[in-house]
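Dissemination and training. As part of the outreach component of the grant, students in the summer workshop were shown how a complex can be specified as a set of sequence lines and then modelled as a single object. The example used during the hands-on session is reproduced here so that future cohorts can follow it. Participants entered these lines:
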Amino acid sequence: MADASCPVPFSTYERVVLAHGGGGRVMHRLIDELFLAAFGADPLRAQHDGAVIEVSGLLAVTTDAFTVRPLVFPGGDIGSLAVHGTVNDLVCCGATPTQMTVSFILEEGLALERLRAIVGSMAAAAREVGLTIVAGDTKVVERGKGDGVFISATGLGRVITPGPLSPSRVRPGDAVLVTGPVGDHGVAVMLEREGLSVDTVGDFVSDAASCLPQLRALLDAGVDLRCLRDPTRGGLATVLNEIARAAEVGVHLDDAAVPVRAEVRDACELLGLDPLYVACEGRLVVFVPEPDAPAALAALRATPGSEGAARVGAVTREHAGLVMAASSFGTTRVLDLLSGEQLPRIC
Amino acid sequence: MADASCPVPFSTYERVVLAHGGGGRVMHRLIDELFLAAFGADPLRAQHDGAVIEVSGLLAVTTDAFTVRPLVFPGGDIGSLAVHGTVNDLVCCGATPTQMTVSFILEEGLALERLRAIVGSMAAAAREVGLTIVAGDTKVVERGKGDGVFISATGLGRVITPGPLSPSRVRPGDAVLVTGPVGDHGVAVMLEREGLSVDTVGDFVSDAASCLPQLRALLDAGVDLRCLRDPTRGGLATVLNEIARAAEVGVHLDDAAVPVRAEVRDACELLGLDPLYVACEGRLVVFVPEPDAPAALAALRATPGSEGAARVGAVTREHAGLVMAASSFGTTRVLDLLSGEQLPRIC
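and obtained this result:
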């Protein structure tokens, strides 16, 4: 438990016990010395049943549970992932993140140092985008009734796009862009989970990151955004299917134009995965009117982290509700929703 | 799976499988046929990454995870409890509930009929208070990595009190009221969990309910509310300790004045519990200036469900940070925070 940055040992316990969720002295100490020390927002310090914030205008609200396994992976952990995932859902609503609430479901026996590291990386990711954690909750379940830590997060954000973004705004003729190579997050988590050595298969880091800079760059470039979606569970192919159904349009995808890093492609082959269905946690799928596509691409490519942005397809009137993928051999196939998933517990 | 109220079987599965959280066809079907069918709010139907709502003024924000065991208990289930708990935290912020987000962490193997019942009672409890469920998420974890279903809920509400409610507003001389007998929720859940027969120990029903009528009654009566708190985990004694610490005041509790139903007192004796520390899920602790106490009590007692409201103590300048309980024998003791808890997973 020795740590120069933490002068006071934050608990006499080394592991989570049921009492940490019990409402008594042990829980109050955990909240004071771990959560408040890391998050330190005034509304939290008031230690009331909730926060009161002043708002006006359009408020975006998103929520997600995070159950990623393992808890720590190359490029992040469940704490930073919960913030990035929340931020990116707000970004997809055209919003800049403002406040966040977070609840933890801890399994008895979790090492408190592990929890402190997760909470620390959560706090750091929140600070990075100016997000204040205004309310929280902690529950503890018995050993074998949870899996280390689950995090549920709700994000609030101020809408900064001129109009609402929504699948229903997508129109035939729109261009489809991605903000960078796909599949890095899923592959990095999967290899870490399976304990596959980096030496054997290459060097993999999750793409998990905030996409707020990308939203800002697109707005600064004056692009008319139709819809944004982050391709998490189910990857790019699933997001395109969701949009095709919701907007009642077809989507034409140019297989060869989809950026996939060579290492990721190789690892997917090794693992028997299709990279089009592998989760990203730091990418956006961007729908813009065709005339705005060059400006959108240029703005993205000038944004750190999105140098690899690419145009990958177009929205069509034909094949409403379907995604048609064209291979470099000239063949076309329906890129359907999978029944289940390739990768459980990726986020 | 036959149910006259559900003409379409909502899934070809009878139990939750990992694919229900996988982002693919099976998950979409669960969302469409179970969650949207029950919650049916327009923002949810848009099936975007979040909702956009128009707001202005003071917004209350609360969050909680619910891990109660068993999932169903006399008087409610984890679904209705998640709504009542969220509503009551908003009420404690002086707010009327408006929107809610909810995320589910499901364990592989959970019966879908069980889930449908939980979601149904959640929807009913939300309708009762005019709460719209605007965003949600579902994750599935492997068998043995969860416990049926965990729910995390975040509530948004419009502040309707003239000023903010907060522990820091509590003053020496204030009266302390409770809105009804304490301990019913904890005892009902505990007896159900332990499988103790109702015939043996009496008839127990959780008090879980929305406390919005009580807030409205107090405001209609023109009472100057200092602070409201719902005595959930750790019960009345814990809430009084939290307020005493946060407001840097003492609290004098009159043991004999605390309403506890005789059956609850008997069951607590049987289970070795102190009812002052047993959770309620439909009660408020109310702090008002002494001159307002009679009007507050009268308003509460005229509100269905709070006929048993009582004045239980007063705020003192002495013993700052402590709760002093006076017994009917004239003795006084410090009513301290417990170290851990009497009852794990009560909410």
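Residues 167-334 of chain A form a domain with the Phosphoribosyl-aminoimidazole Synthetase; Chain A, domain 2 fold (CATH 3.90.650.10). Students were then asked to discuss how this feature might be tested experimentally.
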